[in-house]
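Lecture notes, part 5. Sequence design as translation. It can be helpful to think of inverse folding as translation between two languages: the language of shapes and the language of residues. The source text, in structure tokens, appears below.
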């Protein structure tokens, strides 16, 4: 997993306060969506998180890596190939028509096992130079 990276960010005090309020609102929404916490309790948790982040990382920008989308992309390929309606796929995953076609056009990673031959992977066994006993 990639760790967040930090860099110094120069803001006025008012901009910092505005950013803290926005972050608090984002945390409230995330806590409510992810675990269904009541808004009043989610607000207390969000305020504590913002205070802690400001104390530990105040004045820095935090880069948070995006989630891995390979499983989502594989599901989109399966649904598209299964004749699912394009508009349904677009709505379900919140993506555009061109993004669906881009994902469907991408190939899935191929798993290659060394020394194993199959119809999909007609690779001869490794030659070691040793005579089999």
């Amino acid at each position: 997993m990639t760790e967040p990276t930090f860099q110094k960010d120069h803001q006025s005090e008012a901009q910092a306060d505005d950013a803290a309020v926005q972050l608090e609102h984002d945390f409230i929404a995330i806590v409510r969506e992810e675990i269904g916490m009541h808004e009043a309790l989610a607000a207390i948790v969000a305020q504590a998180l913002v205070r802690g982040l400001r104390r530990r990382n105040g004045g820095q920008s935090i880069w948070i890596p995006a989630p891995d989308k390979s499983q989502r992309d594989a599901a989109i390929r399966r649904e598209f190939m299964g004749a699912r309606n394009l508009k349904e796929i677009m709505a379900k995953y919140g993506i555009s028509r061109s993004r669906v076609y881009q994902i469907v056009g991408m190939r899935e990673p191929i798993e290659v096992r060394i020394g194993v031959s199959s119809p999909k992977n007609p690779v001869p066994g490794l030659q070691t130079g040793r005579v089999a006993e």
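The translated text above is only one of many valid answers, since several sequences can fold into similar shapes. The beta strands are 5-8, 60-63.
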